[in-house]
Every structure is written in C-alpha cells, then in structure tokens.
Amino acid sequence: IIQDRIFGAPAHPSLLWNNPPGALLALPTFSTSPSDFPFYHLQRGSRPASRFSALIWVGAPGQPPLKLIQAVAGSQHCAQILVLWSSEKPPPSRWPKTAVPLTVLAGQRKASDRFFPHRALSTDAILSLDAQSSLTTSEVDFAFVVWQSFPERMGGFLTWSHFWDEARGGWGHTAEKANEFSMVLTSAAFYHRYYHTLFTHSLPKALRTLADEAPSCVDVLMNSLVAAVTKLPPIKVPYGKQRLEASPPLAPGGPDPQPPAQDCINQMAAEFGYMPLVSSRLRLDPVLFKDPVSVLRKKYRSLEKP
C-alpha cells in the first residue's frame, strides 16, 4: 500500500483496490493490468478469450490418454494440449495427430506440480484433466462456454460437498449425490491460469506439502483457494454419460489417527483460519436439455445420450 502511494507509475490501478478481491490478491508479479486477472471482466464489460489450454496430468499407471486427447482436440475452443507426464514409465514416442499443438512436459511426480504456472500455458483458461478422465467434445465445448460467464470461478462436472460433523467435531467431505455441492473435481474442471500462480506462490507451504503427501487433497485445496479469493461457489455442468462418481472420501474422526488424505479438509481449515468453501445448488444445462423436442433443435445433443 505504501509503495502504491509513493510510486505512481507501478502502482496498482484503482479498479484493483476498489473491487473484490482487492489488490493484495492481484499479485504484481503476475500482471499489473486488470484485464489479465479473472475478477474484473464484469466491471470492464469484457469476457475472457474464447480459447483454452488443456492440461492433462498423467500419473500412475501412466497410460497415455489417447481417446481423451482426441476428444479435447476436437473442441472448437481448444488452443493447445499439454500433457504433464509424472509417471515412472517413460512417455510414448508417438502421439496421435491433432489439429492443435500437443506438448509433453516432464513432471516432478508431485501432485502440486499440476498447478504450477508452466510457461507453456498460452491462454487464460485452463482445462485441468486426469489421464483417466472421460469427456466428449460437446461436454468440453459447453462447459467452456459456461465458464466464460464465470471466469473467476471453477467450473466442472463431478462434485463433492463438505459438512460439519457435530459428533466428531470436525469437517468432512463426501462425493455422495446431494442437492448441494461445494467442490468440483480438478480431474475435469475449467479455471483461470492465475490460480496456478496463487497456488504456487500464495498458498501456505504446509498445504502445498500436504497436497504432495496426499494427492487426493489437491481437489480440496484448489477449491478452497478459489473460494477463499472469490467468496463464491463453483459452477457445475451436466455429464452426458452415466459415469461412475469418484469414491467418496472418508469423514474426519475415528479411533485411529487419520492419514492426511482423510483429514486434509480440517488441516486446510486450520491453515486458513476458517472454512472458505461455499455451497451451491446451481447446475447449468444447455437450452432444451432433455426437453421433448426434435434433436435437430438442440446444439449439444450428445450430452443426453446414455
């Protein structure tokens, strides 16, 4: 704040100070222009660019996600595909030919590496994917169009919800289907690349270490970070096919000491000093979704196929 008062040229613009989340969360090492952050499009009357980068994280067992690459590359909004190879096995020598550039990055075999601000990312929008993810081109297209209206939030398909367990005196989270949700899984989610910078440079070191020790915590940590900054819940879009939901995480408590994977939500809340996650009941569907009209009138027809 003092530097902004004294040095006029490199000071934060007034828009950053006078609109949430505030200039302290708009790191000048990332940019000094409000248009580069995900928070100020509404005030500026702008929208994010209509292109995204797909970042596919490949861990164990390290099988190349060939079908997923083809589905994502078929999106009209895809600008590039980055494969973050973090498996012990070497990557294949040949990859499928795609209409967009495909780059293989060497990972450090750490879960937090998937949220590192890689210089190869050329777009503001990132589609985070796991090698085991299964999406169609229509699902990718629709989810991205929805995310463009909410660039400060995360948008995804599979959801978790958090809850307070009065009997055990701690927070828990579950993948069971319910009306409310507060997290979208980063195995298939859109968000702004600025959150990679915040995750790497602003998240407490203890939480980044926790993500590496318990990879299942990365979803909780990334959603908590975005919620702490925006004070808003994520956005959910429909899955076209009936896929198996992720196995629900266990709630806190129990007679035995819990490993970090089961208790990361409580460690996260302790580091933040409060519970940042925000619940929502909103799901955005395409127009005429599951309406009894001709399929020729529907833009995302494949989303309704069983």
UniProtKB/TrEMBL annotation:
<comment type="similarity">
    <text>Belongs to the glycosyltransferase 47 family.</text>
</comment>
<dbReference type="GO" id="GO:1901135">
    <property type="term" value="P:carbohydrate derivative metabolic process"/>
</dbReference>
<keyword id="KW-0328">Glycosyltransferase</keyword>
<dbReference type="InterPro" id="IPR015338">
    <property type="entry name" value="GT64_dom"/>
</dbReference>
<keyword id="KW-0256">Endoplasmic reticulum</keyword>
<keyword id="KW-1015">Disulfide bond</keyword>
<keyword id="KW-0735">Signal-anchor</keyword>
<keyword id="KW-1133">Transmembrane helix</keyword>
<dbReference type="GO" id="GO:0050508">
    <property type="term" value="F:glucuronosyl-N-acetylglucosaminyl-proteoglycan 4-alpha-N-acetylglucosaminyltransferase activity"/>
</dbReference>
<keyword id="KW-0808">Transferase</keyword>
<keyword id="KW-0325">Glycoprotein</keyword>
<dbReference type="InterPro" id="IPR004263">
    <property type="entry name" value="Exostosin"/>
</dbReference>
<protein>
    <recommendedName>
        <fullName>Exostosin-like 1</fullName>
        <ecNumber>2.4.1.224</ecNumber>
    </recommendedName>
</protein>
<dbReference type="GO" id="GO:0005789">
    <property type="term" value="C:endoplasmic reticulum membrane"/>
</dbReference>
<keyword id="KW-0472">Membrane</keyword>
<feature type="domain" description="Glycosyl transferase 64">
    <location>
        <begin position="52"/>
        <end position="289"/>
    </location>
</feature>
<keyword id="KW-0812">Transmembrane</keyword>
<dbReference type="Pfam" id="PF09258">
    <property type="entry name" value="Glyco_transf_64"/>
</dbReference>
<comment type="pathway">
    <text>Protein modification; protein glycosylation.</text>
</comment>
<dbReference type="InterPro" id="IPR029044">
    <property type="entry name" value="Nucleotide-diphossugar_trans"/>
</dbReference>
<comment type="function">
    <text>Glycosyltransferase required for the biosynthesis of heparan-sulfate (HS). Transfers N-acetyl-alpha-D-glucosamine to the nascent HS chain (GlcNAcT-II activity). Appears to lack GlcNAcT I and GlcAT-II activities.</text>
</comment>
